[in-house]
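Write out the bound-state structure for adenosine-5'-triphosphate.
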Amino acid sequence: MIITVGGIKGGSGKTTIATNLAVFRAAEGRDVLLVDADDQETASDFTMLRNEQLEGGAGFTSIKLTGPAVRTEVKRLADKYDDIVIDTGGRDTTSQRAALTVSHTLLVPFVPRSFDVWTLEKVSQLVAEMRAANPELAAYAFINRADPRGQDNADAEEVIRDTEGLVLIDTPIGARKAFGNAAAHGLGVAELKPQDTKATAEFMMLYRHLHNIKKTSPIAVGA
Ligand SMILES: Nc1ncnc2c1ncn2[C@@H]1O[C@H](COP(=O)(O)OP(=O)(O)OP(=O)(O)O)[C@@H](O)[C@H]1O
Ligand SMILES: [Mg+2]
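---
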């Protein structure tokens, strides 16, 4: 599966989710390529740190790509890996568009705040435009950094449900320090010791959901 973690809002958790997906997928014995298509290069920095910190190395391969090369190189490498995870920057970039021409799935994290939710319409437009080039593209959104209480999570989920072209995955991930703490050590959230079981369980729910989607037709689920 080729999955792009994207959207057009900075700081929504794209790199956190992309790196954790790569870590989890690799832990299952899959040959994973993590593509850093963001010029900030955070996913690459994470992988470098992970290679330094873990005796056995990162467990996956990471490369940096930018612009149209995201499409051409990912196409070229698609057969060589079981899974490709593409991390994009927090804007509507050529790199993200190139990624979406070759991806099966777009996964968009949303923080339940107005400024983030306001970008939904633009993400919807982006998906519609990219489906002209890649009709099979499935697009999912979920709430990341969910509030521990209050109405904002449910309100944001409601707006996502009403957004054309995007399917809500209704397993939110809470605002949990474990994600940042794990990343600071080059680790996935499940590898952090002591483990934050809630953060791990929430990520696993999202992960399983994506995995199950993959087993069925993405278009059937995404319709
Ligand atoms: N579920 C979460 N709970 C708590 N903190 C989180 C969560 N997800 C991400 N963060 C933190 O939020 C910050 C931004 O996350 P991240 O870098 O993954 O976002 P991004 O969308 O990749 O940002 P950018 O648009 O700059 O690439 C980081 O400090 C990260 O540790
Ligand atoms: Mg990022």
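---
Residues 197-215 form the longest helix (19 residues).
The two ends are 19 Å apart (CA to CA).
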